[in-house]
């Protein structure tokens, strides 16, 4: 009898062919971290349930009943015990996702591993006539390199799971497309290193340490040399203007080439920085070698989009540029769609740009995961920032970071372009009077409502407002107008929220910054005298705070730590102050550095892991907001019509994101109650279009002050 796994018109793929094809690919992927035997075995076991008569009848069209084919392989793993037992989660979940362990009281209908064990399934023993279960000869990981064996084992299971599901997808895809797989993995890192070296060859000749370019060249040369180091943990502490982006790329490519590594992954907190960094990388390395993997990315042509979508599924490109959210949520996910790419993180150089932005509320599990990737999966990690967070104590296995920047203190002294001045507690009226005296200044406050209020008082020609109350396409236009005024030395006063602190290229004569975290205030200072055309003493960054305590979501502890340092009279930009700030902050936060108790789900659990629970709980951005589409441009109207006709498509939502803002549930309730919003499409959750055009203006974006009397509650 011929046992069929897949059919494509008249063509068939036998189960044996599919198992061997998947096993070979899965073994190859796992071989990147020395576990080929595990990957191969998992691939051979995952679909043995398809040998049942019930499945064979279904695939031949004799009935349409749903047939469980994943439980059989999981059952074999459990029955064989020993090392095979570690594969039970992976095989059981290769379609449904990694499950929670469950309890003895679970029945066959429960979506847990214990529930799976209670299931009645069709006889699958026919596999024994064709398939021999491969031997597993290695241990999952080196026990000497872990302080939490359960966490290490859970990560190992995720990695093998990733190898399996990607291999399963790819083998099936190859059969369905008659062997024609539309994928391009890009060029080898050695070729990319050559391209980079050609690009920077002229820069490296500059040995003049008294010039900005000479200093940048010194940092660049040092990063290239350090790239020859063995794999491990590194940090690149470079002041604003020091050429961090190209220097980190130089280290990463040299390091990858020297250590036979597969790719470079840039993990960045903001999409605005992603877009500008990815542009730099594409210019140097070529479009085909850089995958920009985040929600807002758009591509010029359908063919380009198709290729990049395929690559985004499993990160099969030599340079990946992604977000903190994408990176860490994938590593703690349980669904195959998100986990598929994980094995390609192994044997990679991972650059954490703006490392101080690693999510505080998930800091401990994030650091634990970085440590696993270094210790067991052949990765190197680089913590890259101008304000290096004090993370040493969170690495449990005695990993120490190698600094890539030469003569750090000297570099920071050289690149110092501003002076901080603490002007203490101020009233809104006092601040407004100070801003009226300025010619080109940036004022950053902590809330959108405060930014709108101050702007209204100052509103005249040359005064601008910027916040996330404006949709991205609108903000981009405003920024271009602001840059133009600054270039032409025209009056320009900008009232903004923190969105201008990172990745926004602006150069003001002075900056006013409401009290925030030390890293935020230093980022704000980077918008003052950015080009270094003025003396530092003539480029002031004024720190202030308003009377009373303002409710700033998730920032209270950062503000309290910074305030205590200011009271002590410390210079904010000193390395010692920055270290002290992060030490204080992490001490204050304590247990909230793992607010969802993620690590507890993998500590002393004896393989009773809750993968599904963690996948649901580990969300860097909590969904307590609604998305509002602003339809006030011709391009937006076309996109809205497309969404209403075709529904939610990946391409449509990507285009729509340029015309969307997010508002908190409290504001949404008032606006919806007042009839200002309606659903974009009836079956789309949390996605609405603004119907009251008067609520959105060119100057301020969405008006957030809603009179309670306007709302109609039913």
Task: Explain the overall architecture.
- This protein is α/β, with parallel strands linked by helices and 714 residues long.
- It folds into 4 domains: 173 residues, Hypothetical protein af1432 (Orthogonal Bundle); 224 residues, 3-Layer(aba) Sandwich (Rossmann fold), CATH 3.40.50; 156 residues, Rossmann fold; 86 residues, no CATH class.
- Helix content is 42%, strand content 14%.
- The strands form 5 sheets. The chain has a 7-stranded parallel β-sheet with strand order 5-6-4-7-8-3-9, sandwiched between helices. A 6-stranded parallel β-sheet has the order 10-15-14-11-13-12, sandwiched between helices.
- Helix 12 links the parallel strand 5 and strand 6.
- Helix 1 runs antiparallel to helix 2, helix 1 crosses helix 7 and helix 9 runs parallel beside helix 10.
- It is globular, with a radius of gyration of 28 Å.
- Going by CATH, what is the homologous superfamily of the largest domain? P-loop containing nucleotide triphosphate hydrolases
Shape: globular
Counting DSSP H or I runs of 4 or more residues, the number of helices is 26
Helix content: 40-55%
Roughly what is the average pLDDT, rounded to an integer? Answer: 90
Structural class: alpha/beta
Second CATH tier, the architecture of the largest domain: 3-Layer(aba) Sandwich
> And the CATH topology of the largest domain?
Rossmann fold
Radius of gyration: 28 Å
């Amino acid at each position: 009898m011929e046992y069929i796994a897949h059919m494509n018109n008249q063509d068939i793929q036998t189960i044996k062919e599919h198992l061997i094809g998947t096993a070979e690919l899965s073994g190859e992927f796992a071989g990147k971290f020395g576990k080929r035997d595990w990957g191969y075995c998992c691939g051979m076991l995952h679909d043995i349930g398809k040998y049942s008569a019930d499945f064979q009848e279904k695939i031949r069209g004799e009935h349409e009943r749903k047939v469980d084919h994943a439980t059989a392989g999981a059952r074999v793993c459990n029955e064989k015990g020993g090392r095979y037992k570690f594969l039970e989660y992976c095989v059981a979940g290769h379609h449904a996702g990694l499950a929670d362990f469950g309890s003895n009281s679970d029945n066959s209908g429960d979506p847990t591993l214990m529930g799976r064990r209670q299931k009645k399934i069709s006889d699958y023993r026919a596999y024994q006539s064709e398939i021999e279960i491969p031997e597993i000869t290695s241990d999952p990981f080196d026990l000497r390199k872990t302080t939490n064996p359960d966490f290490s084992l859970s990560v190992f299971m995720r990695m093998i799971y990733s190898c399996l599901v990607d291999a399963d997808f790819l083998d099936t895809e190859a059969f369905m497309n008659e062997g024609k797989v539309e994928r391009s993995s890009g060029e080898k890192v050695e070729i990319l290193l050559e391209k980079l070296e050609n690009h920077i060859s002229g820069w490296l000749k500059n040995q003049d340490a008294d010039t900005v370019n000479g200093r940048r060249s010194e940092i660049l040369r040092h990063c290239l040399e350090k790239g020859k180091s063995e794999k491990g943990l590194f940090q690149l502490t470079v002041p604003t203007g020091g050429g961090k982006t190209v220097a980190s790329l130089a280290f990463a490519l040299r390091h990858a080439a020297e250590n036979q590594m597969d790719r470079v992954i840039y993990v960045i907190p903001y999409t605005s920085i992603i877009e500008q960094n990815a542009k730099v990388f594409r210019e140097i390395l070529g479009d085909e070698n850089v995958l920009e993997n985040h929600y807002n990315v758009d591509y010029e042509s359908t063919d380009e989009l198709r290729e990049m979508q395929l690559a985004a599924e499993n990160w099969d490109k030599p340079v990946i540029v992604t977000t903190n959210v994408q990176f860490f949520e994938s590593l703690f996910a349980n669904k195959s769609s998100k986990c598929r790419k994980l094995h390609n993180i192994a044997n990679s150089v991972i650059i954490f740009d703006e490392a101080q932005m690693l999510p505080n509320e998930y800091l401990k599990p994030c650091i634990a995961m970085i440590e696993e990737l270094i210790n067991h999966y052949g990765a190197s990690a680089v913590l890259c920032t101008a304000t290096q967070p004090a993370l040493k104590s969170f690495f449990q296995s005695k990993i120490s970071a190698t600094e890539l920047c030469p003569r750090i203190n000297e570099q920071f002294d050289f690149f110092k372009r501003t002076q901080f001045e603490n002007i203490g507690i101020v009233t809104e009226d006092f601040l407004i009077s100070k801003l009226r005296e300025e010619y080109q200044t940036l004022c950053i406050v902590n809330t959108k409502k405060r930014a709108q209020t101050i702007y209204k008082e100052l509103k005249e020609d040359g005064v601008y407002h910027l916040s996330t109350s404006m949709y991205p396409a609108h903000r981009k236009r405003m920024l271009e107008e602001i840059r133009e005024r600054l270039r032409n030395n025209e009056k320009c006063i900008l009232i903004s929220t923190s969105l201008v602190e990172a990745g926004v290229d602006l150069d003001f004569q002075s900056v006013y910054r409401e009290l925030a975290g030390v890293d935020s205030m230093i980022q704000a200072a980077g918008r003052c005298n950015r080009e270094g055309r003025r003396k530092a003493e003539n480029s002031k960054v004024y720190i202030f705070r308003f009377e009373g305590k303002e409710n700033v979501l998730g920032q209270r502890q950062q503000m309290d730590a910074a305030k205590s340092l200011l009271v002590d009279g410390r210079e904010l930009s000193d390395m010692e102050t920055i270290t002290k700030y992060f030490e204080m902050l992490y001490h204050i936060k304590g247990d909230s550095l793992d607010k969802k108790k993620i690590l507890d789900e993998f500590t002393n659990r004896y393989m009773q892991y809750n993968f599904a629970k963690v996948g649901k709980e580990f969300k860097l951005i909590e969904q307590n907001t609604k998305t509002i589409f602003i339809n006030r441009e011709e391009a937006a109207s076309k996109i809205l019509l497309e969404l209403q006709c075709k529904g939610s498509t990946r391409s449509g939502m990507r285009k729509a994101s340029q015309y969307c803002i997010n508002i908190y549930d409290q504001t949404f309730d008032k606006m919806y109650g007042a009839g200002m919003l309606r659903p974009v499409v009836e079956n789309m959750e949390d996605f609405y279009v603004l119907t009251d055009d008067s609520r959105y203006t060119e100057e301020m974006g969405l008006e957030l002050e809603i009179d309670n009397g306007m709302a109609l509650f039913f």
